[in-house]
Each structure stands twice: as structure tokens, then as C-alpha cells.
């Protein structure tokens, strides 16, 4: 294999980055070109993404990339979208999935269409912000085209429209059985089918960058390639698994906890457990459930004026464990707000003592997340029939030693932590595979396993306190 360099644009809900990925025989190396915060902006009561600010940062990042890039790929958080008018102009700023416009909408759509139909067709977990519910709350009268966030950026870079499949699978409008947009759901919802662009696969060339983008970034002829444009799909593609019997936790703003399968699980039990069948790279199924994740910590840090995280985690590690717990998936934690106050009130309601100060609050959050990881891993195994020998925890959360250790203890399974930048790696490796410099998915994962710093956490061996806590909270079914 010769050398090749690819650029990955990875937009997470808390921060974005542009990375260069250098591939040489037996090696993949990421170099950060630009990192920037992703801060939602509330405008006249509505919570928006600053999508032009993000795009500006993408252009700046690409400008700093070395010459000779083979291609660039874009991934981001799921479900959110921009609407284009008939002239291809963006109608308004994309709305954040945590905005309150969807309050009560999911319940209405579920009552009208029925859970059975929705799950049978899309295989998607019921989350109030899924695109399908956002559309039911939106004004589509001037919309000609809907583009999910990475597809919108791809459009601005190339002028080409399309819907990359892994991210399209998070809309609730894609039929998990035949992989096409569901005419049945679109009709029932009154969403014009024409606004949904043709689907594209990870690895497909979207096109060369527009002339103005080439001039602005200094990369004439740069090609944009579709990757697993749902960030979680790219993260799972780079999980350093060396066996089939693995589970993953893609741990950042959210914890996405599950297994990789060849076919969806659409049973009633699975629907009741609110498990999702999202599309993975290579047609795999990401069978998982969203756990509220480090959002609880991020939002608490914001409330405390952003103190030093490593110091706070050290303090939290010295706080006695399992004294205070919340159900992190309680919908009350979804919107932005005073998270420490919500956590304290939740503890009180559940009969636990309130955390006194940040260290106890952080310990409560991490114990609660580890417990939710345990419960979700066990359910994923039970509902899918997949046995799990090891849990790969990837993303920013893999830097949190306390969370990794607690997750290993709670789940009673070894946790392999890293890579931190799994999503950018998955993005780069999908481009490298399309370019023919890396083989199949297993080869890509083996390369990650052999080259990236990973740490292994063995479980303590006694899960009884965790099992009791899960029962106490009513989480273990
Ligand atoms: P997203 O892609 O959703 O924006 P990331 O994968 O970038 O999320 O992960 C962000 C999270 O990583 C932060 O919320 C924080 O909890 C965690 N993190 C970042 N740096 C550190 C650190 N030095 N120690 C522990 N945790 C960290
Ligand atoms: C993680 C993520 C997750 C979605 C959520 C909206 O960044 O893409 O997979 O459920 O954002």
C-alpha cells in the first residue's frame, strides 16, 4: 500500500474537528487540523445550530490541510437537517434536536400511526427528536429538499444533493426492510416524498469540490466522499474489535450502547425495550439504545462555570460509590438547563440523599451512567442473542478513567477504552477503503487495534451491588 492522506470532518454535538488521516502500510495516524466548540444558539426562543459557523470552521480546517489530500468525508450528529428552497438556498437555520418544538409531537404521531407500524417499518427507537417528529412540527411549505447536516455540508462543498444511508436511517423515514424511503410513512405523515434526495452509500464519491471552495481552501479537484455520515456509524466502524463477540459504547454527549448485527431485530420485545436498528457501514445493523451520556456532565459543568474536568473527576473518584443514583434516561434531562438542580431533585424523589456539591454530583452522574451501560448491554445481548465477551468504549468518554472502571465493574465485563477519536478514524478508514488502501471492515478494525493507544479495564468481579442498584431504580427487566 502506498501512502495516502484523507481529511475527516467530524461534527459532534459538543465540538467539531477537522483531522488529517495519514495511511501507510500497517499504520493510520490522525493529525488534528482544527478543533472548535459547537455551541447551540437560542434565537427568539428557538434553539438552533450555528451551521454557518460550523461550515466556516470546516473551510478553515481544510485550508490548513497538507496538499495532495485524496478526499474529504463529513460526519455529524444524527437526525437534524436543513431545508432548501427551489433555488437551493437554505431556509432558516437548522433547529437543534433539544429544542422544545417537538414537545408532545412524538406522542401525537405515535397515537396516529401506531407504534407497531412505526417500528416495523423503520426499526427505530422512539426518541422525541427523531427527524420524523421534527418534520411533523416543522413548516415544509417552502421546502424543496431536505438535507441532513453532513449532506448539507456536502452540498455546500460540491453542489450535489443526496442522503447518506447510515444517517438517513436515523430519520425514522427509511424502511429498514428494503432500505428505501418509506412511501407509506411519508404519505401517512403528509411529508412530500420529493423533498427526500436519493440515497447514497458510504464510500460513494459525492463529487469534486466547487470551484469557489477549491479557491478558498487551496485544494483544487479535492473529492468529497460519503462516509458513515452518522457519527455513531463512523465510530462503530473504527471499534478495535478483534472478535465478533463485542459490544460497543460510543461515549460522548450520548452513550450509544449496543452490538453490531447483520439483520435488524424487529420483535415486540425489542420495540418495548426501545432498541434501535440503525444503519451501519457495509450494511451492518447498529442494534443499540441511546443512553443520555456525558451530556449530564457537560451541562453540569456549564452550570458550574466550566471548572477543570480532570481535577473534578479525581475528586469524584474519592467519593463513595452508589450512594446517589438517577435514571439518566429520564426525559427531564433532555433539554438544556440547570442540570445539578435537576439531578438533586431526581435523587430526592427517588429516596437518595441529594449530592452536596460538584464532586458528589459528578459521582452520581458516573455511577448512574455505568449502571445504565450495564442494563443496556445486558438487554442488547438478550434481545439480539449476541454473546458479549468485551465492551469497546470509544469517543471522548474513553478519557474518563472513572467511567471506564465503573462500567467494567457494573457490566462485569472487560472494557477496552479508546480510541478517543474513533469517529474521525472511522470516517478516514471508510475513505481509505473506497480508495483501495485498506481492505474490509475487519481489516480496518485490525488496523485500529494494532495502531491506536487502548487501555483495558478488568471488572472487579462482584456485580451484586450494581444488580441491586438497577433493581432499586426499576431499570433491570
Ligand atoms: P461529542 O462527539 O458528542 O461532541 P466527544 O466524543 O467529543 O463528544 O466527547 C466529549 C466528552 O469527552 C466530554 O463531554 C467529556 O466528558 C469527555 N472528555 C473530554 N476530555 C476529557 C478528559 N480530559 N477527561 C475526561 N473526559 C473528557
Ligand atoms: C451522537 C448522535 C446519536 C444520536 C444523537 C442525536 O452524536 O449522533 O447517535 O442519537 O446524536
Automatic annotation (TrEMBL):
From the UniProt record, give one GO term of the biological process aspect: rhamnose catabolic process
List, alphabetically, the Pfam families matched: FGGY_C, FGGY_N
Q: Which GO terms describe its cellular component?
A: cytosol
Query: Which GO terms of the molecular function aspect are on file?
Result: ATP binding; glycerol kinase activity; rhamnulokinase activity
Span of domain Carbohydrate kinase FGGY N-terminal: 71-236
Domain Carbohydrate kinase FGGY C-terminal, first and last residues per copy: 247-434
Supply the alphabetized keyword list: ATP-binding, Disulfide bond, Kinase, Nucleotide-binding, Rhamnose metabolism, Transferase
Using the record, list the residue span of the signal peptide; answer none if the entry has no such feature: none
Family to which this protein belongs: Belongs to the FGGY kinase family.
Identify this protein by name: Rhamnulokinase
